[in-house]
From TrEMBL:
Function, as annotated: Necessary for efficient RNA polymerase transcription elongation past template-encoded arresting sites. The arresting sites in DNA have the property of trapping a certain fraction of elongating RNA polymerases that pass through, resulting in locked ternary complexes. Cleavage of the nascent transcript by cleavage factors such as GreA or GreB allows the resumption of elongation from the new 3'terminus. GreB releases sequences of up to 9 nucleotides in length.
Protein name per Swiss-Prot or TrEMBL: Transcription elongation factor GreB
Source organism per UniProt: Shewanella jiangmenensis
Keyword annotations from UniProtKB, A to Z: DNA-binding, Elongation factor, Protein biosynthesis, Transcription, Transcription regulation
InterPro entries reported for this sequence: GreA/GreB_C_sf, TF_GreA/GreB_CS, Tscrpt_elong_fac_GreA/B, Tscrpt_elong_fac_GreA/B_C, Tscrpt_elong_fac_GreA/B_fam, Tscrpt_elong_fac_GreA/B_N, Tscrpt_elong_fac_GreA/B_N_sf, Tscrpt_elong_fac_GreB
Domain Transcription elongation factor GreA/GreB C-terminal: 83-157
Keyword Protein biosynthesis: yes
Superkingdom of origin: Bacteria
Transcription elongation factor GreA/GreB N-terminal domain span: 7-76
Protein family membership: Belongs to the GreA/GreB family. GreB subfamily.
Keyword Isomerase: no
Single GO term (MF): translation elongation factor activity
Length: 164
């Protein structure tokens, strides 16, 4: 198996950093207070508030540990004018197949995947096939349902209308 990339867009990194700060400075202290208040009520073994919030606190701590470690290894990739005209990390790409189906994807790191927005990871077969290609190039991608051919209609480093 190939080594996964540790790339992220600046906006993606800022979102993870914002989540970490929220969890550490706001949400964790709120839940810690609830645990303390529930513990002060006495018998913890039958105290649903205590049990629930203690479990929630463990989940928050786990997420905080993950984010701290993840943010340390991620490499922010900013747009460079040298990228214009070719597909690289962070690009929005519009593709069309022989049936006229049009799809739009943005190539991002694994921490930013959002299929509703069309964000795909750079480690995906589609993204791997697109890297370095230009408008009017054809790409073939092996999918579980067979080989699919796509043509690149447009490459942008700013969101398409209705995408972000």
């Amino acid at each position: 198996m190939t080594e996964k990339t540790h790339l992220i867009t600046r906006k993606g990194w800022e979102a993870l950093d914002k989540e970490l700060k929220y969890l550490w400075k706001q949400y964790r202290p709120e839940i810690t207070l609830k645990v303390q208040e529930a513990a002060a009520q006495g018998d913890r073994s039958e105290n649903a508030d205590y049990t629930y919030n203690k479990r929630l606190l463990r989940q928050i701590d786990s997420r905080i540990r993950y984010l701290v470690k993840r943010l340390e290894v991620l490499k922010i990739v900013d747009y460079s004018p040298k990228q214009e005209g070719k597909v690289f990390f962070g690009a929005w790409v519009e593709l069309e197949n022989d049936d006229g189906d049009v799809v739009r994807y943005r190539i991002v790191g694994k921490d930013e995947i959002d299929t509703k927005k069309g964000y795909i990871t750079i480690d995906s077969p589609m993204a791997r096939a697109l890297i370095g290609k230009q408008v009017d190039d054809e790409v073939s991608v092996q999918t579980p349902s067979g080989r699919k051919d796509w043509y690149i209609n447009a490459i942008r480093y700013q969101a398409f209308e209705g995408q972000e």
